[in-house]
Amino acid sequence: MPLLHRTPPRRRPAPRTRGFVLLEALVAILLFVVGVLGILGLQAGMTRAQTEAGIRSEAAYLTQELLGLMWADVPNLAGFAISGGSCTATACQRWLEKARAALPGGGAAVTVAAIADGSTGSDVDITVTWTMPGGEARRYMTRSTIALSHTP
Question: The sheet that has 137-149: what strands, in order across it?
Answer without folding.
Answer: 107-114, 120-131, 137-149
